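Appendix B. Chain record.
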Amino acid sequence: MTRSLLAFVFVSLLAGATAPRAVAQTEGVGIYMVRGPDVGSDAPDFTLPWASKDTTSLDFGGYGPWKDRGRVIVLAFYPRDFTRTDSLELSTLRDRYDQLFGPDAVVFGVSVDPVDKHQRFAAKLDLPFRLLSDPDQKVAAAYGSKDTGGINRRTVYVIGRDGKVAWRNLRFNANARSSYDELGRAVHAALGKRK
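Structure tokens predicted for this chain:
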């Protein structure tokens, strides 16, 4: 085994199931292994400011999953507003909203952008869901979605009615129909419906 591979395996073993991030330096290149909460574990709670296409939370207080306990929650972490791939992902969630989620699930996009930018982005895309602002990436870090460049990695979590992680995709592919189909099946399973 090469030294790079040995270092990777060693760090993998050290990371354990609860470590949010392990970093190995190999020949000047960082290898980042990121872990969020496992399926079946309690979803980390938080409160974040939000924006919809019509308003912001500045008048209503922040959002936290504890406000929707008993409902299925989808958290879609994405890098930035107004980028091509993020526009594609959120537009696809919008276009397939009824098919993927229906009235029994709530959906939130999460990025580092401020609420005023979120509101403009949500209005431009006519999004039927809110965008959460996590500028210091504390929530992204808790969900294994914090990237090294000050933006979020593209990950998606489904939180069940009991507040536990029902499903996660730590490498959500915004360009692949299969990613959305898999998400829809996960939401329907969490809702106790067949898809």
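Further analysis of this model is presented in Appendix C.
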